Amino acid sequence: MPYVNIKVTGGSEAPTAAQKAELIGGVTELLARVLGKNPETTVVVIDEVDTDNWGIGGKSVSERRKEGR
Amino acid sequence: MPYVNIKVTGGSEAPTAAQKAELIGGVTELLARVLGKNPETTVVVIDEVDTDNWGIGGKSVSERRKEGR
Amino acid sequence: MPYVNIKVTGGSEAPTAAQKAELIGGVTELLARVLGKNPETTVVVIDEVDTDNWGIGGKSVSERRKEGR
Amino acid sequence: MPYVNIKVTGGSEAPTAAQKAELIGGVTELLARVLGKNPETTVVVIDEVDTDNWGIGGKSVSERRKEGR
Amino acid sequence: MPYVNIKVTGGSEAPTAAQKAELIGGVTELLARVLGKNPETTVVVIDEVDTDNWGIGGKSVSERRKEGR
Amino acid sequence: MPYVNIKVTGGSEAPTAAQKAELIGGVTELLARVLGKNPETTVVVIDEVDTDNWGIGGKSVSERRKEGR
Question: Pick from A53, A58, A63: which is nearest to D29 by CB?
């Protein structure tokens, strides 16, 4: 019954469909292995966030990328 | 003052504007009826999630749809 | 497969277990009726938020309650 | 280490990249000033929500805008 | 820079500190392996939700547990 | 109409009621100043997260604190 939300940067940095499927399978397996949670009712939602809309260190990721970080 | 977030699959499965309006009205009415919450300050946000980005049972909804589920 | 998160004020304003059950049943029924979603995989999570931790109009709900609002 | 999520209406009401950068910088500075949090690990995510998908007072913002509110 | 939120049932079903540490390490490793994300800025937040406050199939988990599910 | 969620570590690191009021006032003022949002309908929710339940760099904050970080 767990619910997992994964937020990553999108746009040119977005994961492929195959990578998203691997994340969904991997985190579902992790919850089954560590906590014995039933995979059938484990829900995973992936959000792709534009680099203008994600900030760390007081700056957007877009700004950081321009600075080479 | 309640805040409600509803996540459903989007893309070809996305709700119409009329359906979204009905969800907003319905959940606001539910909170007023059950808890006496003021509709004027009840906030509802609907997120439409791509079927590649939603997983259940360890697989993405896109994969499940291909398998006829 | 929908996921719904409902945030309401807690503490002395917290809903009872019966009210929470009514919210869970009501919003699940709403999603089945409006969008044809399967109730068996509709997930609802209710968060009870302390009135010190909820703000509206630039003030916490605790401050607003003291002012009689 | 704080995590901040800001949801605002998008589409024609969406903030510009410069406004989003100002929000990211401002809220990071606020958490450093009030709580002494390290800006380097303060994460901010901004979500732009379609006016059809945002409800208040039991109606979507799209409906409210048509009514001149 | 990813952000991951994991919600599981709490109370008598809550994970131990060791299990939570294993979830944090496991999901951080998964994001590094699948997407090449930097573990140093991967943030994980685990929420423990009371069984009265979690619903699936239109009923709270508390009700389901009483029915032996 | 914006909605803001702020997550910080709780327990012995939790903000005081006065600090939470300052965060609520400050972020509401920021949204009014940068985007012209109406403070009366700006909602802020603060979550205090146990240091066992918050991970960064693949370890819980509790573990990091023991290591002097």
Answer: A58
Smallest Cα distance from F15 to chain D, Å: 7
E4-55 residue pLDDT tens = 999 999 999 999 999 999 999 999 999 999 999 999 999 999 999 999 999 9
SS (H, E, C) chain C: CCEEEEEEECHHHCCCHHHHHHHHHHHHHHHHHHHCCCHHHCEEEEEEECCCCEEECCEEHHHHHHCCC
Q: What is the pLDDT along chain C (69 residues), one digit of tens a residue?
A: 899 999 999 999 999 999 999 999 999 999 999 999 999 999 999 999 999 999 999 999 999 999 987
β-strand partners of D46: D6
Please give the residue range of the domain that contains residue F45: 3-67
Number of domains making up chain C = 1
Q: What is the Cα–Cα distance from D1 to A10, expressed in whole angstroms? A: 22
**Residues of B designated catalytic:** 2
- How far F2 CA lies from chain E's nearest CA (Å)? 21
Q: Which residues of C touch A24 (CB under 8 A)?
A: none
Instruction: Provide the CATH number for the domain around residue C16.
Output: 3.30.429.10
CA dihedral A29, A35, A37, A39 (to 10 degrees): 0
Report the predicted TM-score, pTM, of the whole model to 2 decimal places: 0.97
Distances from the Cα of A9 to the Cαs of B12, D46, E1, E6, in angstroms? Answer: 24, 12, 8, 18
Which chains reach chain B with 3 or more Cβ–Cβ distances below 8 angstroms? Answer: A, C, D, F
